[in-house]
Amino acid sequence: MSAERTNWAGNLTYAATRVHTPGTVQELQDLVARSDRIRALGSRHSFSDVADTTAELVSLAGLPSHIEVDRAHRTVTVAAGLRYGDLATQLQRKGWALHNLGSLPHISVAGAVATGTHGSGDGNGNLATAVSAVQLVGGDGELVTLRRGEPDFDGAVVALGALGVVVSLTLDLEPAFEVRQVVYDDLALSTAAERFDDIFATAYSVSIFTDWASGTALSWVKHRVSESDDWTPEPSWMGATLADGPRHPVPGMPAEFCTEQLGVPGPWYDRLPHFRLEFTPSSGEELQSEYLVPREHAVEAFGAVAKLADRIAPVLHISEIRTVAADDLWLSSSYGRDVAGFHFTWKKDPDGVRPVMAEIERALAPYDVRPHWGKLFTVDSAQVRERYPRLDDFRRLRADYDPDDTFGNDFLDRYVG
Ligand SMILES: Cc1cc2nc3c(=O)[nH]c(=O)nc-3n(C[C@H](O)[C@H](O)[C@H](O)COP(=O)(O)OP(=O)(O)OC[C@H]3O[C@@H](n4cnc5c(N)ncnc54)[C@H](O)[C@@H]3O)c2cc1C
Predict the structure, then answer these.
(1) How many other CB atoms sit within 10 Å of the CB of residue 403?
(2) CA distance linking residue 41 with residue 52, whole number of Å
(3) FAD-binding PCMH-type domain location, by residue (predicted)?
(4) CA–centroid distance, residue 320 to ligand 1 (Å)
């Protein structure tokens, strides 16, 4: 049994009676076959209780961490428990890349895919959009593979662990590429609102970080280097000033935790995440929430959140705004529409944060917002369900793939039903 009984942030102690770590896929299959109730656990980075259960958990950290590149089809099949950072360095050595990464390379591939984890970029779908096949252990212990193009596939990728324990995922690849990352200081929030679309269209991936109260933002602009590249960062952009040294998104935190900036070209995997694999990321003691708003409402939503600056700032480390391209994955927060993500890294003060989260949720309610499954939210479960047009199809899928409710938990009961 593993000693890991809390999530990464320590805000959740898993209610599970046991955490198993099988050493082979066969052991995992036997375990699932004899369990009445069991759920997969990834790298424990979710803040919500999406992974938790009062029964048993199974971690794939003990399974072999193989990766297999198929050059002809430009895909890689990876062990589901592998961390993105470890996968990325192996892909780079072989000359390949993924289209995007989240801000943190320490998160497991299966766990990230299961909740629709995303990076930024107007043209970049979330990380789950790279998945072309899912192999999972079903409730009877048998292996099942679902492939892109099959009728159920779009429901089986962002699946919150509800259909089984995923043992491997096949992901689309592209040839390795380089990225140049620069930071701009002091983007006025009024400019961010007025020129929202221009700002996010500036580069392959753009994030803006603000505390809302200062009236300004730091902008992280990640430019994909092309062969005929003549890009040089402007000293001034959107009224903001090119940073004269490396920055950390959270004021006062050391920039050495962050991936290289100042426009120095480097491999995709060492620029697209904000944080380096070898450092403990972010600010450590934190909680997170994120709300994904359809792009057509992004500017109004921005204004609605900005009005709450005085309520938000005292309990906030930092906010990040990103964009994500639409996809077809039923439970994805960007299903059917391009979105802007309004993310909040909170101080670890659950009682102080909860009412502020609720105020933000009320302010964003008119905009058909979907909360990030892996982060904290207080949105009423009926409202969450209304915001997923393919929820009935997902319920049918659950009934087909998990008729005995082997992989159920309270979270699924609340938000999926
Ligand atoms: C510091 C930090 C930075 C973050 N940055 C980002 C970001 O940039 N973008 C973003 O969108 N999110 C981000 N997140 C949120 C994070 O990506 C999600 O919560 C993600 O789901 C965590 O993955 P995990 O491997 O830790 O899974 P867990 O939290 O352990 O589990 C999450 C879900 O995945 C399921 N799951 C895990 N493994 C399997 C499996 N093998 N088979 C089936 N289901 C499985 C679990 O059952 C559960 O439902 C961040 C979180 C932290 C702590």
Answers:
(1) 11
(2) 8
(3) 12-176
(4) 18
Q: Which residue's CA is the nearest one to ligand 1's atom 51?
A: 45
Give the ligand 1 atom nearest the CA of 80. Answer: 41
**CA 64 – ligand 1 centroid, Å:** 20
For ligand 1, the distance from its centroid to the CA atom of residue 376, given in whole angstroms, is: 12
- Total number of residues shown for the chain: 417
Helix axes 350-364 and 298-306, enclosed angle (nearest 10): 140
Ligand 1 atom with the smallest distance to the CA of 274 is 8
Q: Quick one: DSSP state of residue 260?
A: P
Residues 3-55: pLDDT tens digits? 468 999 999 999 999 999 999 999 999 999 999 999 999 999 999 999 999 99
C-alpha distances out from residue 261 to 75, 254, 306, Å: 29, 13, 28
Q: How close is the Cα of 298 to the center of ligand 1, in Å? A: 25
Which of 169, 14, 15, 149 is closest to 79 using CA atoms?
A: 169
For the stretch 308-354, pLDDT in tens is 999 999 999 999 999 999 999 999 999 999 999 999 999 999 999 99
Give the SS3 label for residue 290: strand
Q: How far apart are CA 396 and CA 120, in angstroms?
A: 32
Number of other residues whose CB lies within 10 A of the CB of residue 413:
11
DSSP for 354-394 reads: HHHHHHHHHHHGGGT-EE-TTS-----HHHHHHT-TTHHHH
Query: Which residue ranges form the domains of the chain, and what is each CATH number?
Result: 67-175 (3.30.465.10), 178-378 (3.30.70.2520)
- Measured from the Cα of 372, ligand 1's closest atom is 11
Which residues form the pocket of ligand 1, taking CB atoms under 6 Å from any ligand atom? 8, 39-46, 50-51, 60, 80, 102-104, 107-108, 110-112, 114-115, 117-118, 160-161, 165-166, 281-282, 288, 372, 374
Q: Residue written as tokens 């961490």?
A: 65
What distance in angstroms lies between residue 242's CA and the mean position of ligand 1's atoms? 33
Asked if residues 211 and 314 have their Cβ atoms less than 8 Å apart, the reply is no
Closest-CA residue, ligand 1 atom 2, reads 104
* pLDDT tens digits along 148-187: 999 999 999 999 999 999 999 999 999 999 999 999 999 9
